[in-house]
Amino acid sequence: MIVDPDVVGLSRLQFALTALYHFLFVPLTLGLAFMLAIMESVYVMTGREVWKKMTQFWGVLFGINFAMGVATGVTMEFQFGTNWAYYSHYVGDIFGAPLAIEGMMAFFLEGTLVGLFFFGWDRISRVKHLLVTWFLALATSLSALWILIANAWMQNPVGAAFNPETMRMEVTSFKDVILNPVAQAKFVHTVSAGYTMGAMFVLSISAWYLLRGRNVDFAKRSMTVAASFGLAAALSVVVLGDESGYSVSENQKMKMAAIEAMWETEPAPASFTLFGLPDVKTHETHLAVRVPWLMGLIGTRSIDTPIPGIRNLVDDAKIRIGNGIRAYDAMLVLRENKNDAQARAILTLHDKDMGYALLLKRFMDDPRKATPEDIQKAADSTVPNVPVLFWAFRIMVACGMYFILLFGYAFWRASKRRLDGRGFLTIAFWSLPLPWVAAELGWIVAEYGRQPWAIEGVLPTALGASSLTAGQVWISLSGFVLFYTALAIIDGYLMLKFARKGPDGLGLWPPRPDAIPVTAATT
Amino acid sequence: MFDYEVLRVIWWALIGVLLTGFAIMDGFDFGVAALLRVLGRTEEERIVLLETIEPTWEGNQVWFILGGGAVFAAWPLLYAASFSGLYVAMFVLLLAFIVRPVGFNFREKVENPRWKLVWDSALIASGVIVMLVCGVAFGNLFLGLPFRFDADLRMTWDGGFFALFKPFALLTGLVSLSMLTAHGATWAAMKADHTIAARAAQVARIASLAYVVLYVAAGIWLAYGIPGFAISGPVVTDGVSNPLAKQVAMGGTWFAGYLTHPWFWLAPVVGILGAIGVQLFVGRRGFAGFASSTLAVGGTIASAGFALFPFLMPSTLDPVSSLTIWDASSSRGTLLTMLVLAAIFMPIIILYTSWVYRVMRGRVTLEHVRKSHGMY
């Protein structure tokens, strides 16, 4: 049965939009949680009230953002089932586990402690409250770990094999799924991106206070934390982004080639295209500015391993489709008679390529009837959208480099105790949106670059969709977009409102002489 | 010891535990939210009510999220078939869940009655919708759902959203609504300022009375008016997870299990005793009232699960496609690994959850919220 292409397209759009919405809030939660923990640690160690107020003030903004992260996250946990039912069946044996573990190990802790962070100030001791904040921060990152283990398995499906009797992938080694090298690189890269975002958020808003001459001591302290935390995070995001690039080149050669718009296999070590206009029709990159050797070094960590180009990979795909059809045929035989030794042998030999035969399912019901033209068409469909990936990647990397420079400079100024200078503060303030740009583009590179696969080499996206009607998906898609957009606007309004009010406007800092200390009032 | 059959039964029970955990823990949040403007007559009273649940609702909701994840991991076919089949209902449910975190957090960020009315309405609606939709969905399981699998195990569904609102399903929806409204009211009676608590106790008594009547009515209807499903061929309990490999007959009774396993009756008895406990204790002994209501919730869900056993999701369109616990699970390896992890982490979860509740113990009084309201 061929799934309605409209349903596939709409479901993809819905998944992309809801994930991109979710990813507006989650990285900030990751980053801010750690910054809160750092600020509160200073409070507990020094006993200076200002650090507690800093934790509480940034905590208010954290809370607004956290609510949005949770609101947009609920959809993600269930969307595989609603819109990607065949995917859920086909890989649930492996893919469901990390999601469930995330719930048990991380999100439960996070959800349970976040209330205590806000309501526990006067109910538990300082040290206990600090522990709550630290566990909250750790739990948010642990959450990211398990989600990225699940995601990494989509990029690099290790530790699983196809079972013709249940018509799905089943786990052969949980250890391999968990220790997936792609997961490790992705985890550190993604949480570092979140830390960078958190640092930028605090840096920019503090810069704004300093530009207005408000909350000066408060803002300078916040900025110092942001500058040091941000520098470490930005360095890590770029270095481990590179590690991520290396692991991509290992198992997602097509994604790598598309990011580089590398149409032909170049002699090693390949050059890196700094700038260019990829032309999908002619398979050329116009006006290319190239840095010799660089790509080969990033992608292979060597000077003599070639990186395959797009055309070569399409030819490879054709061969794999041929093998896949053999595997598919053997699978059908086995479904009738599971003791057919010959079919079993063929399936074992080619089951790594069966997914390639499933690429044909977009065009026909029975891949075994494919003509050479169909196979060509299916092989061509393995090329993702080159110009989008090419540019998304470059802008993301440029942002990353800029973050290192900005946080490096801010760190230098902070260590000289010179966090003034209108030029610096203005730049710091206007850099606020950049981490979001980089994070969203990063998602696009990783996930849009995975197309046409839901699970790389195993399950094409088009096959994973539920058997719905386009009308149903229109309802949910427009509903989510309307709802999320309205909520995002309200979120932006509240963020702005509370950032503007500031610690002074909220009566947090400086302490008013007539004010009763909060702790004394409630104990 | 942990062969495939045992693991499947354990995971059936564990999903039951998660569902019950969700209904008990998040259930009172929904109940309180739905009653926000019934019990809370003034803005201050509403803040009290909200503050009885705000510190802990987030953790409670993870029971739902984890339930989703666990069904995905342990019963992938059930996850795939139910959520995609009940597409529009699921979408409505998700919207109800989406407004909750923002509703709680944003409500008090702007001092404006209209702003608060908007968020209150969202929270009230979300409470009512979740309680109702979950009950309606459960009722539909007994009626069977219109789906079938092809040989690739791709599911197709033949029915719309409004087809779910059959009379019996509406009744089970009302069972859920009254049960969880009573549950929320017993929570408010235990946790909120005395003026509110007295009102809450009254609501709890009425709602729990309604619940008993509706629950018993649903039971009778189920016994006499709704045909059950049964595996008719040989029952293979440790076979491969492929629903198409069995035979299913319709027309028996959903109470077949109760006849062969008389101890199943404990579940409905506990449920009804719980409701009686609510009548006796609510308003007098706060915790006993809430605990009774907890028993009612647990007993009710268990009684439904027992009746369905071994079915997870019966199909009217193609009874063979029905999902049972013997043919819709993950592989043995996944079930075992997940069981080990659940055995480690569930006790830890219960431990720190109890600690948080202990820290937040005591009534939230009007005087307290006048003096300080958390920096939430």
Automatic annotation (TrEMBL), chain A:
It comes from the Bacteria. GO terms for biological process: aerobic electron transport chain. Signal peptide: none annotated. One of its GO terms (cellular component) is cytochrome complex. One of its GO terms (molecular function) is oxidoreductase activity, acting on diphenols and related substances as donors, oxygen as acceptor. The chain crosses the membrane at residues 20-45, 57-74, 94-119, 131-154, 193-211, 223-241, 391-412, 424-446, 473-496. It is found in: Cell inner membrane. The keyword NAD does not apply. It is a multi-pass membrane protein. Belongs to the cytochrome ubiquinol oxidase subunit 1 family. This is Cytochrome bd-I ubiquinol oxidase subunit 1 apoprotein.
Automatic annotation (TrEMBL), chain B:
Its main location: membrane. It holds the Pfam family Cyt_bd_oxida_II. InterPro entries: Cyt-d_oxidase_su2 (IPR003317). One of its GO terms (molecular function) is electron transfer activity. The chain crosses the membrane at residues 12-40, 61-80, 86-106, 118-143, 163-182, 203-224, 263-282, 294-313, 333-353. GO terms for cellular component: cytochrome complex; plasma membrane. It is a multi-pass membrane protein. The keyword Electron transport applies. It is found in: Cell membrane. One of its GO terms (biological process) is aerobic electron transport chain. It comes from the Bacteria. Keywords: Cell membrane, Electron transport, Heme, Iron, Membrane, Metal-binding, Transmembrane, Transmembrane helix, Transport. Belongs to the cytochrome ubiquinol oxidase subunit 2 family. This is Cytochrome bd-I ubiquinol oxidase subunit 2 apoprotein.
